Every structure is written in C-alpha cells, then in structure tokens.
Amino acid sequence: NTVMPAQMTDAHRRFLQILMSNGIIEGLEARKLHQHCCETDKVYYAHDKLDDFISTINSHLQPLFMQIRKGMSEEDGRAHYALVSLAETEVTKMASDYTEIELELFRKTMDLIILSENGFASSTDILNLADQLKTKKMKKKEAEQVLKVFVEDKWLSEKNGEYTLHTRCIIEMEQYILSNYQDVARKCNICHSLAIQSQVCESCGIGMHLPCVRKYFRAQTEPRCPKCNEFWSCDMP
C-alpha cells in the first residue's frame, strides 16, 4: 500500500512561504513559526511535532525536487532549517542569481575556506584572488562588494575580516562539497554532518565540529578521541 502524503494545509503553505523568503531559519524561530502558522489557520498545534509538520511539507515538495533540511550552526551548534533544491546540488544553482565572474570568486573563496586548517579565509587572501580570475579581472573594490552580497544572501559568514561558509551554504551544498573536495572534506565524527570549522585528531585524523567537541568532552573525565582513544591534544573550544 502506498502511503498518501498528509494533506498540505494553509499552515504548511504559510510556513513554506516564509522559509522560502528567508532561505534559512534558526530552530527556535522555526518552532515559533510552526506555532504561529497553526494558530493563524486554526489547525491543531503540538509543540513537539515540528519535524512531522516539516515531513508533511517535504512529501509535497518531493515532485518538485525540493526539500526542507535540518542542519547545525558550526559556531554554536544550534539547529537551522533551510530549503534545498535536490535537482541541482552544485554551485550552478547560484548561477541564476550571480554573474559568471561572481561565481568564480565564490568558488575560489570556497577553495580557500575548505582547504584551510581552521575553516576560515581572510579577506586579504580572498581579495588577492580578485585579479587572478579567469573570467575577467575584478577590482578589489568590486570584490569587496560581491563578498558583502554573499554575506547578505547567507552563502558566507564574516567575522573580523575572516570568512567562512554560512550554515545555509553548508546545508545546501554538503553533497557538492563532499564529492568535489574528497581528499579534504570530512564529516563530523559525532553528528555525521559536513564539518568545515573543526578540530582534527592528530593520531587518526577524524574531525569534530567545535560545538560537538564541547558537548562530547563535557561528559569525559579526560579528552580522548572517540575513535582511537588517544589523548585529544587540541585546545578546548
């Protein structure tokens, strides 16, 4: 017997529209939005049923090759929800929003971030790439503006002149990154999601998100690698 997807109500549609206009929302916001949508449309609301509510939306999005996915902020470990296109998991999905030269700058920035040791790239290093682009050279002033747009559109995050991939970018591009950076991209040993900002075991090479490191070692008497049991030599984040 095929299970028919649960009926998509106005509450589901309202939730989806707001998520689409934001691109990504934080877990707490998603819970508030779930309550607001149910109460506005006078449908049954249960505070612990957000994931079921989202599953119903996802069953209707399936034919459109879209999906609401849950991910984690690498900075503080908080849950986030993003709307993801399953049809194009690559940087090409950004092609409708950005020019070829902007996309090239984004790819090169992504290279710097993923190949770095700490998951960050400095604005200096990124801006130095601007006049080496194949599409055409970009002035540093232009490049600064483009980076600003990538931050506004939640593809990059910036802190004190250091750039990393935004949670939205990690959720949307996880598969693309894992298949295009096979030698360096790694999943967190604890939550099994892609880890860009991570600590790495010096003995066996597994990686862990900083929030996962904090959470995992909180319960341990001394920090030992969850895989090889060697002493964890990185500083506690």
Automatic annotation (TrEMBL):
This is Non-structural maintenance of chromosomes element 1 homolog. Residues 188-229 form the RING-type domain. GO terms for molecular function: ubiquitin protein ligase activity; zinc ion binding. Its main location: nucleus. The keyword GTP-binding does not apply. Component of the Smc5-Smc6 complex. Keywords: Chromosome, DNA damage, DNA recombination, DNA repair, Metal-binding, Nucleus, Telomere, Transferase, Ubl conjugation pathway, Zinc, Zinc-finger.
